[in-house]
Amino acid sequence: MSSVEAAGLYVHIPFCRSKCPYCDFYSTTSLELLPLWLEAVVKEIDGYRGRFALFDSLYLGGGTPSLVDAARLGALIDHLRRAFSFSDDTEITLEANPDDITPGRLREVLDLGVNRISLGVQSLDEGELRLLKRRHTALQAEEALAIIRSAGFENVGIDLIYGLPGQTVPGWLKTLDRALGFGPEHLSCYQMTYEEGTLFGKKLKKGTMRPLGEDVERAFFLRTSRFLEKRGYLHYEISNFARAPEFVSRHNRKYWRRVPCLGLGPSAHSFDNDSRWWNVRSVSDYARRLMSGQSPVAGREILTPEQVQLERLSLGLRTSDGVPLETFASCADYSGVLTRLSDSGLIEIRGGSVVPTRKGFLVADGLALLF
Q: Where does the Radical SAM core domain start and stop, copy by copy (predicted)?
């Protein structure tokens, strides 16, 4: 990580019209809490004035930020600009659902300075969309992508999920091919996970829903990577692909590089050097604390040097940037471990860095633990 790289700013907008059965991000369908949330976020923003010198990314995530009206989004962004310093080329991302996309809505968003859309498509197969309880159809998703393009957005990301029960690799590749027809600058392809506390997680525990199995999931991952790289996309992080280096998600890359990031809103996480902290996971509790002059922070931790080192390795080995060789110098027998990993086809030494191969991406979470 560069010591002079600007920080990232994340705002959690935790409102959804309905809860997806696979999602474990904090959200609420109580849209009547929106005014209270905005009032509280403004107070939290004011509490961080002067803490961060410069931001060059603003990520409005959720939840479903696209359901918030332009007046409230505008009030939020205006207050952020008054409170903080942003670079002239700040990447401003809005997460959106296809059913919120209209030409008029996008004109409003563009006027607010948003220059990147991340569209939660998840699938272009009708059966899979029904399984995921998505509110849109495949046709609506494709229409939304066309509207986004016609509105003038030049940086568009599509989120997709693969490895669903009953899904086949050919069916998945068909969805990918249809998505590529819109020329997205970025693709996030997430393997289906069954998080505890979600509806899908409960079904897994009861045995009424089953994952595809490790071998099939491996095949999905490898075919996805080959398919997209063959079509010119950079596989720059386990789940993420960019059409060119300039379309790598500037904000998300900060997390993998351990660049300071400030998170605002209920359940948002922040990081600065060796310190991490996170907010309470409730709009009501978050607002109550801020309105009474209290901090919304639910917990914090100071990382030990050993934890910092493990983070550097585990996060870096998730990316095509890899980890600089000198980072391993303090690890016992690092040369022998690197040789064994290289001989196994899991890493390459490239440009003075240890870089995971496609095969290495499959076991990236375990690589750092070997040092």
A: 1-234
What DSSP letter does each residue of 316-365 carry, written as one string? HTTBTT-EEGGGGTTSTTHHHHHHHHHHTTSEEEETTEEEE-HHHHHTHH
279: helix, strand or coil: strand
Spell out the long-range contacts of 253-258 with Cβ–Cβ below 8 A and sequence spacing 24 or more.
253/319, 254/5, 254/7, 254/8, 254/57, 255/8, 255/315, 256/315, 256/316, 256/318, 256/319, 256/321, 257/1, 257/2, 257/5, 257/315, 257/316, 257/321, 258/1, 258/311, 258/312, 258/315
Model pLDDT, residue 329: 85
* Greatest Cα-to-Cα distance within the chain, rounded to the nearest angstrom: 60
- d(Cα 191, Cα 19) in Å, to the nearest integer? 19
**What is d(CA 334, CA 312) in angstroms, rounded to the nearest whole number?**
15
Place of tokens 């997680």: 201
* Amino acid symbol at 152: G
Q: What pLDDT does 168 receive?
A: 95
Q: Is 363 exposed, middle or buried (0-12, 13-18, 19+ CB in 10 A)?
A: middle
Quick count: other Cβ atoms within 10 Å of Cβ 318?
Answer: 23
Low-confidence ranges of the chain (pLDDT < 50): 1-2
Structure tokens that stand for 218 in this block: 């491996």
Residue 315 dihedral angles phi and psi, to the nearest 5°: -75, -45
Burial (Cβ within 10 Å: 0-12, 13-18, ≥19) of residue 326: exposed
CA distance 344 to 315: 21
The structure tokens listed for 248 are 């790598």
**Amino acid sitting at position 6:** A
d(CA 237, CA 245): 12
Query: Would you call 264 helix, strand, or coil by DSSP?
Result: strand
Amino acid at 320: S
Q: How far apart are the first and last CA of the chain?
A: 20
Q: Which residues does residue 241 pair with via DSSP β-bridges, in sequence order?
A: 187, 235
Pairing, β 275-279 against β 269-272: antiparallel
- DSSP assignment, residue 195? -
pLDDT score recorded for residue 368 = 87
For the chain, list the domains and their CATH numbers: 7-257 (3.20.20.70), 306-363 (1.10.10)
